[in-house]
Write a structure and sequence with these properties.
The chain has about 210 residues and is an all-alpha fold. It has one domain. The chain is about 80% helix and about 0% strand. The chain is built from 8 helices and no strands. Helix 1 crosses helix 3, helix 3 packs antiparallel against helix 4 and helix 5 packs across helix 8. The relative contact order is 0.12. Keywords: Membrane, Transmembrane, Transmembrane helix.
Length: about 210
């Protein structure tokens, strides 16, 4: 992964790689969602307003969210690679990534929902309504009950190889990795870390929804 995401490469190339990686992560999860949602695939195949709204949702909401979260992850990964040279443990960047991705996922959805209300008349054109539905929507995304779940798991797909690489290089996490069967420790720990981020997002969204009444 270091060859694709390095602080030494040109910024435009870094952004291009993030975009391509985001598209590659988003496409299969999106396809799975379309196939699993009852009646959704035939509705899209029929074209018309349903297809138009779907494309707009993915282009204006899904791709920006996945790209932004992946960009932060890949940038932190690149920082971690440089820090290894200066003997700084990359586990610090994993913890930072887990925190940032939850905040970014929530914040970007809120921002995009407000813009959608202004630009496309979504949520009856009401910014207040747009903000009120963010938390309830994201609280169910972990269960793949709405399209936000696609974006959530697409960011997980993008982060997994980076987490595995960083965990393998972390001296502080080595004892924990040793608790897992041989050669599976880093991958298992990475999955647990990503699961923690999903649970954290769900709990934070549930709390916000509860406070909203």
């Amino acid at each position: 992964m270091e060859r694709y995401f390095s602080l030494k490469m040109p910024g435009a190339l870094f952004l291009q790689n993030v975009l391509l990686f985001s598209l590659a992560a988003l496409a299969p999860v999106l396809l799975l969602y379309v196939l699993l949602a009852p009646g959704f695939a035939p509705a899209l195949a029929a074209g018309g307003p349903t297809l138009g709204r779907f494309i707009r949702q993915v282009v204006t909401n899904g791709l920006p969210v996945v790209f932004a979260v992946n960009y932060v992850s890949f940038f932190l990964f690149a920082l971690a690679q440089r820090s290894i040279v200066s003997h700084r443990d990359p586990a610090v960047f994993l913890l930072l990534d887990l925190t940032v991705r939850v905040a970014l996922f929530l914040g970007l959805h809120a921002l995009i929902y407000v813009f959608s209300a202004d630009w496309f008349g979504s949520f009856s054109g009401s910014r207040a309504t747009a903000l009120r539905v963010v938390a309830p929507t994201l609280s169910r995304s972990a269960f793949f009950e709405n399209i936000s779940g696609v974006y959530l798991y697409a960011t997980m797909v993008g982060a997994l190889p980076l987490y595995v690489s960083a965990i393998n290089q972390s001296a502080s996490l080595r004892p924990l990795i040793g608790l897992f069967p041989q050669k599976t420790g880093a991958a298992a720990f990475a999955l647990l870390a990503l699961l923690l981020s999903v649970v954290s997002l769900t709990l934070v969204a549930e709390l916000i929804a509860h406070l909203q009444g």
